[in-house]
Amino acid sequence: MRIGRRRLLQSSALALALPGAARAATRDPAPAAPNLFVGTGGHGHTYPGATLPWGMVQLSPDTDVERWDACSGYHRDDGSIMGFSHTHLSGTGIGDMLDILVVPTRGPVKLVPGTLTDPGAGYRQRFTAEFAEPGYYRVALQSGVRSELTVTDRTGWHRHTFPAGPGHVLIDLSHLVLDASDTQPLIDEAHLAIDADGTLTGGRRVFRWAKGRRIFFALQCSRAPDRVTFYGDDDAERPAGTRRVEGRRLKAVLHYDDAGAAPLLIRCGLSAVDVSGARANLAADTGYWDFDRVRRAAGRRWEAVLGRIRVTGGSDDQRVILASALYHATLAPTLVSDRDGRYPALDGSVGRVPAGGAAYSTWSLWDTYRALLPLLTLIAPERAKSLIDDLIRQTTQSPLGPLVWPLQGKETATMIGWHGVVPLAEAQAKGIPADYAAAWPAIRRRSFDFAAPDRDNSLGRALYDAGGYVPADRVFESVSRTQEYAYDDWAASHLARAAGAGADAARLVRRSGNWRNVIDGRIGFARPRFADGRWWTPYDPVQLGHMPKPWWRDYTEANGWQATFLNQHDIYGLIAHMGGDAAFEAKLDALFAAPSTLPANAPPDISGLVGQYSHGNEPDQHAAYLYAYVGAAWKAQAMVRRLCTEMYANAPDGIIGNDDCGQMSAWFVFSALGFYPVDPVEAVYVFGSPAFERAEVQVGDGRRLVIDAPGNTAATPYVQAVTWNGAPWTRSWIAHADLVRGGTLRFVMGTAPNPGFGRAHADRPPSFGHRPG
Question: Are the beta carbons of 51 and 294 closer than 8 angstroms?
Fold first, then answer.
């Protein structure tokens, strides 16, 4: 995700143990519970609050809205809580959301939050006794209030226990993420009202990251307040008896003369469509005021999802890291359709999904196409089917066609490419039934209609088509664009073929080879190239490009080293282009061994460095697995085990970079199981080094995949041999179609490399639709 973090590894020595791996358990009597605070420190940008798998509501504490490290609204190192808002982004590098802040407190009413350094200047409160588990969060606030949070899919539930005496609840509709680059006003319209039944309703339109997104709510309390006061943009109290207020920065205060008489329950339904949608979503939870019932139901939902992968062996920390990664990998995409099926469509209309369907937000496709969405096709095929149906539907509705980074009905078009085609092509290749042909006209426009509207993500399409690359002196981030556009062409060619558009498919396949035009085979590096065909000189792969303007870069969150290995779909073509197996293997060795230095103008996203490989960001996260394509699978095994060790920990700063809606976590889940989808569209997995002695994975319809590695420890990272359902398996890869049928994949692990495993050309992974010859 754009905007990130830099953190160099504390050691460059090859470490083969995961954190705390001194003890290798032979049995794990119960699955480990995830640590919801993993990623809330450092630069992980996660939140610890209550949500459901892929749910609409993320009810969580907010500690700050101004620092980049508080993109999620929360950072573990902050010492005060502003309140609890109902929507959050997990692991992103840009902040938004934080809708409908609820502040339970006592004492004088304060309408501004104060600062981190002086929380007493506002309604911030210091806190203790924080606790979080899937679907539930609690904390003790400085005011003496004990706050608990839980959720349903579309409703946030609070239980606030006040001390005896008066107290109040502030509802701050002006609360949101702030950034120095923002253009005011960030909220251009808002309203709050008390209805006859005591329900507080409201909504606002926000221009933060997703420009013009709308959010609505309906909130009820288990006890009627003794009085309600409204505040407008000037923070002046409105006259007694006011029932509705409109403006931009609105607040309401619910006053209780004896707030401690009984726990105060609040339930708040959300909608991205209108107040009536929020009311209907809330109504599904009415008829009872039982917080613990909701909490238990949320816990059961999470048990079902987290129980899809169970492991034995390894250390306590290893198992917690895996459980935490699986948790974070099942937060997004997030539900955006109401109970009646309505949702904010990307063309500005109100859409409606068919019965049993769902619409989703928070796709983060530049990140999640790589591992997160492939993971769901393996462990949650029913959810993957729902997501694919929605991708097709929203692709047909979006003015930009294939999805990029939509958030609550607004296409932010953040990052480069139109990677919404990738999960569609992947799903089609994996046999997930869907109407792929329905998406083809919109994909075709994005691919071939150069008069179609562009945003930053798709600049230079006509130049790319006509000249074979995006020129560095015409469009920023040209080298990465050329390669990522080529990958999207590869994915789109599969969809064209499925739609019966054979000529278009052939054109896309040819154009998917454009990556060659920005990799200088003479020097073996991705290199900026100008419109007249000249390469940028003098060339330095550590630099970010020729920089004619201070903000101009030739790579997307990468430099020449990382962009050289960006290719995911034509790896044998890349190997040949760079001089063959030996030259390519040496270049990979150099990537991981180069000095970990970066120029002063490098974005903080280039983090988690091993040499010039950057694990903290997405462009080259598949690079370690590329060793398998030159027959050096043992080097992939060693490096993958090292990355699992050094980049993840059971701690708040336990994710080396932004989690990016679960992509970093999904990488760990796959790699800890022992394989990874280098090219999701190829629908195969390349072997790495399993981290546990045994893993049991539910793969749908009662089928079970067992991954056995008897005696596997921190000292045995190398694969000696593999069997599949008892038969010898010499390949360094396996097809998705094999794994989803269920069976037993058995690894024999050892302390020393077996260079012969996967060495033969016939045993190397397929790429670009064929095997090496």
Answer: no
